[in-house]
Predict the structure.
Amino acid sequence: MVFSSCPVKNNKTMNPLKFSFALIFYVFMTAHDNLSAQKFIQIEQSRDAENFRITEGDMMEFKTKAFQDEWQKGRVEKILMEDQAIIFSDRMISVSEITHVRIYRPLPDIAGKFFLLFGASWLVYGLVALIFGLPNVVPQDLLIGLVSLAIGWLVSRFSKRTFRIGKQSRIRLIDITFP
């Protein structure tokens, strides 16, 4: 919808360019904190130039010193720079307590799940067709489902990267907010 003019008091009209500028200015002034992730968790490796960032609102999977054998998962609600702590929806964890962090790569994870779903559905269809004796399905067709399941499992297996915090990797909380 194009505004040719916007009515205001005394039957005067506002220039549409001024109205657009005022609207953009208002949106910018009210939403500038949400537009950029000013606080984030950075995972660095000593021999790798690539750093991984986790911002407020992202999911994080990690192990702590208290629960060394158990992966914990939670959404990062807030990052406390002064206390060097991360607040999740149900707990608060100090950065020094984290021993492992797991990062998921979204594209391989989605592709792996797709192949797993396709392979499982192909196998179910093939087995049902063989049980009821449908003429268009032969036992060799089940290989398609098995190969798809194997590809999905392999892709899903390599879609995650685990960092062991210590000599080679470290976690930093970074705040780049404008004062």
